[in-house]
Amino acid sequence: MTIEQMRDKIARQKIEIERAINDDLPKKIGNRVVRMTKQNFQEEGFYGKRWKEVKRRQGHGKRGADSRRKILTGRTGDLGRSIKAKPEQASVTVYSDLPYSAAHNEGTQNAGRGHSTRIPQRQFLGNHPKVEQAVRETIQTEINKILNK
Question: Considering only CA atoms, which of 149, 148, 143 is closest in space to residue 17?
Fold first, then answer.
């Protein structure tokens, strides 16, 4: 390979890496983190840390379907399905737009109509070493694809 060919290859790789950082990677990372977050709902925890049990499943509540369904799934599963990714240039935000998602993710002392209901934290979104690892792996895989062409 000549120096000119090497220069052209590096110039193309630079353009491809910039496109990956600004466009492709935010989408791929967002999709991966959304899948991971939805898996938290299936596993009833936050990357291996189980959520606090709910009274309806501890024998205090009614029997039947409600006592058997998973924590935070509700009758509709809306909270788990509300997880979305908003990719932007060189960044991505993973979020839920439901008004009660923060109360469950962070916990609260004043929920409900009378503001007297306590909701324990059952985190499903946020920073975690597994999320950071997934982001690093996705970036490394995409950059390696470009560099190894």
Answer: 143
pLDDT tens digits, 12-47: 999 999 999 999 999 999 999 999 999 999 899 999
CA–CA separation, 146 vs 15, rounded Å?
10
Q: Which residues of 9-32 are buried (b: 16+ CB within 10 A; e: fewer)?
A: eeeeeeebbeebbeebbbebbbeb
Strand partners, 91: 88
- Tens digit of each residue's pLDDT (9 = 90 or more) over 82-126: 999 999 999 999 999 999 899 999 999 887 777 788 888 999 999
The CA distance from 73 to 32, in Å, is: 21
Query: pTM of this prediction?
Result: 0.84
C-beta of residue 77 within 8 angstroms of C-beta of residue 116: no
